[in-house]
Write a sequence for this structure.
């Protein structure tokens, strides 16, 4: 399996090939990413730039210090295509969507932290529920036959009513959510479904709308508070033991490039046709072997950055889901999408990134190239597909 340690020249060769992946769907296309100042949004913006897209972003300022957005120098690189604005304000969202007239919208802007949602439930609902409605409404108002648009709205595996069982959740399982964050994403899914059925379901609809549900992602450039990998990195960098709150909780860990490849391929496939099957909800999760406990994740991290971890379960901590698995048969069958990096590779790539974070831009671009090369080697459709 390829690694991001090849010479820089190989990246230059790859960049030409990269624009042809995903069927060449994004080359020269105007793409709006909401939440581009965040962790996943910055990776997505970088990947779309490599695909030759005309990338625009709408978000609040970066939510962390440091931030991947800054490390990739995206403010300067996007220049006047970097829009600062609040999706809780309809006029702001409508103005940006009307100005940009995107062929694709990837909606990632959100308050994404469970623990913060307990402290700030109303802000979480306003951003994740009303904000999502604003993005869809802006798209509804701005699209017509001359200006079609494909929208992929990102929610989470936590949108499901979690029964704490080993069954893997399917796209048809009921929405729910114990905490404000999870329920806000379940509510966003209901709104996405209602917009699709009310406005975007005609065979000749100029807008095509899908939602994407992924599990916990890991990868370089996540600096969020109260997330396990950034917490580990901060502890290791300070020479402190990693403190693990819920060592037995299992999560479907995957590298950030895995769901992003799913979002991109879902959008590319929707723009190519077959909206009836594809303008729906999709899970993007890892292979079952990547459903690992938080304790296993800590041990895997320590293979690449030596240190210690300590179990410090807090019985008074707010409720967080213990068991959560995603079924990905639908994405595998309808999109021919599949995960590329297994759990050890995803962890290795993540820790490699943090250990060389001074070269974040090069490293991020090399990891996108390496991931694409590995996907090609495994015969994954989006990576083989040429425009
Ligand atoms: N990181 C994960 O493990 C994970 C897992 C499943 C789903 N998700 C989802 O993926 C998306 C991106 O998550 P992330 O980890 O990159 O989060 P992040 O906190 O790093 O980024 C969030 C982005 O949303 C923007 N934002 C927040 N409130 C806003 C507002 N009111 N108006 C405009 N922009 C606003 C921020 O400025 C930032 O750009 C979210 O929808 C999240 O729910 C993340």
């Amino acid at each position: 399996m390829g690694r991001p340690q090849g010479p820089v020249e190989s990246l230059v060769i790859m960049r030409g090939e990269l624009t042809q992946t995903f069927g060449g769907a994004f080359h020269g296309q105007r793409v709006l990413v909401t939440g581009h100042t965040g962790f996943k949004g910055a990776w997505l913006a970088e990947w779309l730039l490599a695909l030759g897209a005309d990338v625009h972003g709408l978000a609040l300022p970066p939510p962390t210090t440091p931030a991947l957005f800054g490390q990739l120098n995206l403010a300067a690189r996007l220049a006047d295509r970097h829009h600062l604005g609040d999706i809780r304000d309809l006029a702001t969202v409508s103005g940006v969507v009307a100005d940009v007239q995107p062929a694709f919208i990837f909606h990632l802007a959100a308050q994404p932290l469970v623990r913060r949602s307990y402290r700030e439930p109303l802000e979480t609902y306003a951003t994740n529920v009303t904000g999502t409605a604003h993005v869809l409404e802006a798209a509804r108002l701005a699209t017509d036959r001359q200006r079609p648009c494909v929208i992929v709205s990102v929610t989470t595996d936590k949108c499901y009513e979690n029964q704490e069982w080993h069954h893997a959740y399917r796209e048809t399982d009921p929405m729910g959510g114990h905490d404000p964050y999870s329920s806000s994403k379940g509510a966003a899914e209901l709104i996405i479904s209602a917009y699709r059925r009310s406005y975007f379901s005609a065979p000749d609809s100029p807008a095509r709308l899908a939602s994407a549900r992924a599990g916990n992602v890991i990868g370089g450039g996540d600096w969020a508070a109260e997330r396990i990998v950034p917490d580990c990195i901060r502890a290791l960098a300070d020479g402190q033991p990693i403190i693990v709150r819920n060592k037995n909780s299992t999560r479907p860990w995957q590298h950030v490039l895995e769901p992003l490849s799913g979002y991109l391929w879902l959008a590319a496939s929707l723009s190519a046709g077959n909206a009836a099957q594809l303008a729906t909800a999709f899970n993007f999760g890892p292979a079952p072997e990547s459903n690992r406990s938080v304790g296993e994740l800590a041990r895997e991290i320590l293979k690449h950055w030596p240190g210690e971890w300590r179990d410090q379960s807090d019985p008074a901590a707010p409720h967080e889901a213990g068991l959560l698995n995603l079924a990905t048969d639908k994405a595998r069958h309808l999109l021919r999408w599949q995960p590329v990096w297994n759990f050890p590779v995803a962890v290795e790539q993540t820790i490699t990134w943090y250990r060389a974070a001074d070269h974040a831009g090069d490293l991020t671009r090399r990891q996108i190239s390496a991931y694409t090369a590995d996907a090609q080697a495994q015969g994954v459709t989006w990576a083989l597909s040429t425009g």
Remarks:
- DSSP finds 16 helices and 13 strands in the chain.
- The first strand starts at residue 30 and ends at 34.
- Residues 35, 37-41, 59-60, 63, 86-88, 108-112, 127, 131, 154, 156, 214, 216-217, 224 surround nicotinamide-adenine-dinucleotide (CB under 6 Å).
- The radius of gyration is 20 Å.
